[in-house]
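chain below, 221 aa
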Amino acid sequence: MMSTFTKFALGLMGQLRPKPARGDSATSIVLPAPRKEGGLPLMETLARRHSSREFSKDALPFAQLADLLWAAYGVNRADCGRTAPSALNAQEVDVYVALPSGAYLYDAAANALHLVAPSDLRRVTGYQDFVDEAPLDLVYVADHARMAMVPVGQRESYASAAAGAIAQNVYLFCASSGLATVIRAWIDRNAIADALGLTHDQQVLLSQTVGYPMANTQSRS
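prediction:
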């Protein structure tokens, strides 16, 4: 695991790079149908919401990953509305999923993951050392090409608000499901954009780490 100082130094030099993928980088992964019932009552879930920065290395099973991504930003009604809001229903935020086997784009309509980079991008998604080995990092990317009705000077703030809503959905799902998570803004956005092959219209906003909590170790904020 690379130290935070080393990663930050590499970032300053523009040298923060992904690692080779672990396992098979499947071109597409069709996720199990998400479960849309159960969980804790809302007020109890809010009472349990907190940030964690220590994670087990154990991978989330695909069924739980499907539930997590649906809660984050899945399609929740017949008109293709989502579980998180966006201004003018632009749905400008994309959720990228960094796994040991590669980086994937979440396709909410198809309930699937599509490979965008056959490398382990987890270390690139943040300067903190824990992101290297946590099983899952989410990256929220705004596509400004979908925001033609929004004034250019307001697009970043609109997209950031949408990404914040998605991140809170993840927090609530994790609190209800016994998972650990933390949102992160201290990231090398250029390194992430290069690793994901983003266009000039796409902007990296935030990252969020998810995994099982380490036994008896939690940090709160």
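The CA atoms of residues 81 and 182 lie 26 Å apart. Residues 216-221 have pLDDT under 50 and may be disordered.
thats it, cya
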